[in-house]
Design brief:
elongated; 0% helix; seven-stranded mixed β-sheet; mainly beta
């Protein structure tokens, strides 16, 4: 059974920083990609950042230059360093992991979500 455990959300003033973490545990063959999505009230969930198994990354335009996604392969953990936070970054942030449970079975898993609130 694969589980994702998120941590690091909270309340911060505009211009501040937060670091999110998501640890993957359980039995699986390999990880294809790890990423962060967010969903603000009344809006659709959007991809914020993703890091592929080879290390390449991509970001939504609105966070480029402010957010950095990274990972610790040994710990199966992905991080999202968020700097220069803006009120419009306020949302519930979800960790997403695309992995192979076995060589033949590919599945996505979601974290429980962590609230990030940026006050103006």
């Amino acid at each position: 059974q694969v589980q994702l455990v998120e941590s690091g959300g909270g309340l911060v003033q505009a211009g501040g920083s937060l670091r999110l973490s998501c640890a993957t545990s359980g039995s699986f063959f390999s990880i294809n990609a790890m990423g962060w999505y967010r969903q603000a009230p009344g809006k659709q969930r959007e991809l914020v950042a993703r890091i592929m198994s080879g290390g390449s990354t991509n970001y939504v335009d609105s966070v480029k230059g402010r957010f950095t996604i990274s990972r610790d392969i040994a710990k199966n953990t992905v991080y999202l360093q968020m700097n220069s936070l803006k009120p419009e970054d306020t949302a519930v942030y979800y960790c997403n992991v695309d992995l192979r449970v076995t060589v033949w079975q590919r599945t996505e898993y979601w974290g429980q979500g962590t609230q990030v609130t940026v006050s103006s």
